[in-house]
Design a protein that fits this description.
Radius of gyration: 15 Å
Strand order of the largest sheet: 1-2-3-4-8
Number of helices: 2
Oligomer: single chain
Order of helices and strands: EEEEEEEHEH
Distance between the termini: 25 Å
Number of strands: 8
Amino acid sequence: MPRHPRKPRRLVADGHTYVWTLRHAHRRDGDGRWADCRQILTLHPQPPAAGGPLRIVFAEGPGRYVPGGAPLGSGDVGFTHGPGLNLHEPGAVRSLLDAALSHGWHPSHPDPRELDGWPLLHAAPAARSDDAGSPAVGADRHHGTHGDPGPHHP
């Protein structure tokens, strides 16, 4: 049986435990069309009182892809001519966590923190290729910034 996509997943890294979730979010513009698509990866240090959550946000923009599903992959984010990751993969989440830590985030900080994921993405695929044996870099994998939102959007 496949894992439920909304169920938090557990990650242990460098002596710290986290649960993480991924969601796709957007809003409707004045004409009722979907706008401002984002993938939001949230890591919660454990136990819950250990520190505030870290939100890594990938917002759509020129030269970036942030699909919400078909025809592109769920959880995929990246640059149309550069690195990309699938945020459903634990190794990708770990590499983004490592990049956030190297950019000054600490899991014991009590307040929630939100980081722009795009600067972290440059460091994350390099770390991924070292530990997985195959690079997570996908130059020219996708040729748009946003797929058809389809019926899966609320």
